[in-house]
């Protein structure tokens, strides 16, 4: 439920902030 | 420390020496060399110039070189330590070092603060957080009414902005992430602990014999 989360919890869901993607073939 | 064959030295010509990079980071020499294989793959994906440009970074993150993204731009800028508009191998290794499980909480907190301080004012301001929140909603095609967004921002700043000056300073951020450790989840890549086994495809090029230290 987004309204119970703080803004940074939502923001950290961005795909761009998962640098593990750099390692994907 | 690792010994380094002349062929591998040729391999790294024009790049910082992996033995030196390993001595400055949580990575072993062979892990730095494995990262070099990853770096070569990304830095040659659009222009084979031994440097990662923004398109190559976006391609590596999204498998789409044209996908502009607020957060990818911010991460790229933070990795581009020398402000050259490209990421060289030394920047790449030192920046990824912060995401190592063994990197300090302080380094992770500092990096995440700079990540969210979009305008580099030394504070995370409400307008910046709103901009990032809207960018996230667009990226995930989620729709939230504006007053819901304002409510989330109110709640967030109520928790984080202790001195109520409308912005989050470094100390407030440090205290906030201690209370909300999940916010630093993005700052640790567990498999950086041992790249050489997790990414065997990078190991076959390895030419550095690690001498037991």
Structure classification of chain B: mainly alpha
Write down the oligomeric state: heterodimer
Largest sheet of chain A: none
Low-confidence stretches of chain A: none
Strand order of the largest sheet of chain B: 1-4
Strand content of chain A: under 5%
Shape of chain A: rod-shaped
Subunit structure (chain B): Homodimer. Interacts with CIPK.
Keywords (chain B): Calcium, Membrane, Metal-binding, Repeat
GO molecular function (chain B): calcium ion binding; kinase binding
Family (chain B): Belongs to the calcineurin regulatory subunit family.
Question: Any chance you could write out the topology, listing elements then pairs?
Answer:
The complex is a heterodimer of chains A (about 25) and B (about 210).
Chain A: H1 7-11
Chain B: E1 2-4, H1 6-11, H2 18-24, H3 29-43, H4 54-62, H5 70-79, H6 89-97, H7 105-116, E2 124-125, H8 126-139, H9 146-160, E3 167-168, H10 170-179, H11 195-198, E4 208-210
Antiparallel strand pairs in B: 1-4, 2-3
Function (chain B): Acts as a calcium sensor. CBL proteins interact with CIPK serine-threonine protein kinases. Binding of a CBL protein to the regulatory NAF domain of a CIPK protein lead to the activation of the kinase in a calcium-dependent manner.
Pfam family, one (chain B): EF-hand_7
Keywords (chain B): Calcium, Membrane, Metal-binding, Repeat
Question: How would you characterize the overall build of this protein?
Answer:
The complex is a heterodimer of chains A (25) and B (213). Chain A is an all-alpha fold. Helices cover 20% and strands 0% of the residues of chain A. The radius of gyration of chain A is 12 Å and the shape is rod-shaped. Chain A starts with 6 loop residues before the first helix and ends in a 14-residue tail after the last helix. The mean pLDDT of chain A is 86. By secondary structure, chain B is mostly helical. Chain B folds into 2 domains: 16-101, Recoverin, domain 1 (Orthogonal Bundle), CATH 1.10.238; 104-189, EF-hand (Recoverin, domain 1), CATH 1.10.238. Chain B has helices spanning 6-11, 18-24, 29-43, 54-62, 70-79, 89-97, 105-116, 126-139, 146-160, 170-179, 195-198; strands spanning 2-4, 124-125, 167-168, 208-210. In chain B, strands 1-4 form a two-stranded antiparallel sheet. A two-stranded antiparallel sheet of chain B has the order 2-3. Chain B is globular, with a radius of gyration of 19 Å. The chains are: A mainly alpha (25), B mainly alpha (213). At the A-B interface, α1 of A face α4, α5, α8 and α9 of B. Chain B: Pfam families: EF-hand_7. Chain B: It is found in: Membrane.
